[in-house]
Specification:
Elements: H1 2-10, E1 14-18, H2 24-33, E2 37-41, H3 45-52, H4 63-71, E3 75-78, E4 89-92, H5 107-117, E5 125-128, H6 136-146, E6 157-160, E7 179-183, H7 186-197, E8 203-205, H8 209-239, H9 244-251, H10 275-285, H11 291-317, E9 326-330, H12 345-355, E10 359-363, H13 387-390, E11 395-398, E12 416-419, E13 435-438
Parallel strand pairs: 1-2, 1-4, 2-3, 4-5, 5-6, 7-8, 9-10, 9-11, 11-12, 12-13
Antiparallel strand pairs: 6-7
Length: 439
């Protein structure tokens, strides 16, 4: 521990971050900006080349920040995993997707742990940041690392510290968001917490990696369950002719015992749609059934189809069928004002509209073209965000509440808007404008 304290204080420890995406890149930059030498590892050669040129591929992490890191000579992106030997600390920030049957897929974690084990040396610290079920760090990563012949904590240290990235957020960032840290033993916890403490405002050590793993899942399950609740309320209140958005505003006036959540077209992002099922899968292994998690998943997963049902009814009001109608979906991102479309419900909405025979397009200035995903390959390109374009469609479907869509002039020639985000109605407080159907 004394040797680590000296290296941390002198900023002589070399930090390696595996995965230079939405989680790993901000972490690498924070360590760099705190005076450490950082190596950013990624298997995507194009991404590494862009970073090496000082170019950012993430909107809220500007190229200016990347260029400054590269120019400072203490940050370098690389595909050469043999350079892990240069690192004193190695952070794993790789994807943890779900399989076809909503089972956890830890293959990226396992492959990364094996890659580290081949190059592991005495004195290194390894920290897993990828979200996973309790027991992964100790039960899966540790045995893979010990295939190197080294043992923890005598030869190397191992901890888990969940990422808490929220792209586009203004009030908290990587440096200011409190950081949970739990090692597989006290020595690992102490060193990992000290290293994070050199660049983050607040570090919160917990008793074990399993606690940190569980806390991360609880954070995301809390959101998933509450979003499902308000989505269910939306569907019920809609049948009753009651505006769910006004109901939420009214309930939010209570200064205690209530936290507002808002309905939408489904869940998106790298956490909420996926992570809760990591715990429900693990719970079943222990003979327990995570009914809240499964029910929330069922409700949230059904929301894109609910949106399609609302589109059908809305078009019927204009004497039109969905089959053959021209529909423009506004927003491809999973949340407002970010260039992140991972697990976005917009993809499923577009796919379902297309399957129903509609002529579909989308508009999202942050995404010139749709991406090929594990489930979808739409091959669409974004259309201009202007009133002339909007007026050509039988209906607009608001899927993402980008600020660029908050302009009443855009809807001057629009006949029908199916709005999942309550974005358009507030633009016409005195009426007028298009016919608006909340979904």
């Amino acid at each position: 521990m004394h040797a680590w304290n000296d290296r941390i204080a002198a900023r002589s420890a070399v930090v390696g971050v595996i995965g230079q995406g939405y989680v790993g890149l901000p972490l690498a930059l924070v360590f760099h900006e705190s005076g450490f030498r950082v190596l950013g590892f990624d298997v995507d050669a194009a991404k590494v080349a862009a970073l090496s040129r000082g170019e950012s591929f993430i909107q809220h992490i500007g190229s200016k920040r990347i260029a400054a890191a590269v120019a400072g000579k203490r940050y370098a992106a690389t595909t050469d995993f043999d350079r892990l030997k240069e690192c004193d600390a190695i952070f794993i920030c790789v994807p943890t997707p779900l399989g076809a049957h909503r089972e956890p897929d830890n293959s990226y974690i396992h492959d990364t742990a094996r890659a580290i084990a081949k190059r592991l040396r005495r004195g290194q610290l390894v920290v897993l940041e990828s979200t996973t079920y309790p027991g992964t760090t100790q039960g899966e990563v540790l045995p893979l690392l010990e295939q190197s012949g080294l043992a923890c904590p005598d030869d190397f240290l191992l901890a888990f510290s969940p990422e808490r990235e929220d792209p586009g957020r203004k009030d908290f960032d990587t440096r200011t968001t409190p950081k949970l840290v739990g090692g597989v033993n006290p020595e690992s916890t102490a060193v990992a917490a000290a290293l994070y403490g050199a660049c983050l405002v607040r570090v919160v050590p917990v008793s074990h990696a399993k606690v940190a793993e569980s806390a991360k899942l609880l954070e995301n399950i809390f959101r998933s369950v509450n979003i499902a609740l308000v989505n269910e309320m939306k569907m019920i209140l809609d049948r009753m002719g009651i505006d769910v958005w006004e109901v939420i505003r009214a309930a939010a006036t209570k200064p205690f015992g209530f936290m507002p959540f808002y309905p939408g077209p489904g869940l998106g992002g790298h956490c909420i749609p996926l992570d809760p099922f990591y715990l429900s899968w693990k719970a079943a292994e222990h003979g327990e059934w995570a009914r809240f998690i499964e029910l929330a998943g069922e409700i949230n997963s059904r929301m894109p189809r609910y949106v399609i049902e609302k589109v059908v009814v809305a078009l019927n009001g204009d004497g039109k069928a969905l089959n053959g109608s021209k529909i423009l979906v506004l927003g491809l991102a999973y949340k407002a004002n970010v260039d992140d479309d991972r697990e976005s419900p917009s993809y499923e909405i577009l796919e379902l509209l297309k399957e129903a025979g509609a002529k579909v397009d989308y508009c999202d200035p942050l995404f010139p073209a749709t991406h090929k995903t594990r489930k979808h390959d739409l091959g669409l390109r974004s259309l201009p965000c202007d009133d002339e374009t909007f007026s050509k469609y039988d209906a607009l479907v608001v899927s993402t509440a980008h600020d660029c869509f908050r302009n009443a002039d855009l809807y001057r020639g629009t006949r029908l808007v199916v709005d999942t985000r309550n974005l358009v109605a507030p633009l016409f407080p005195e009426g007028g404008g298009p016919r608006i159907v909340n979904a």
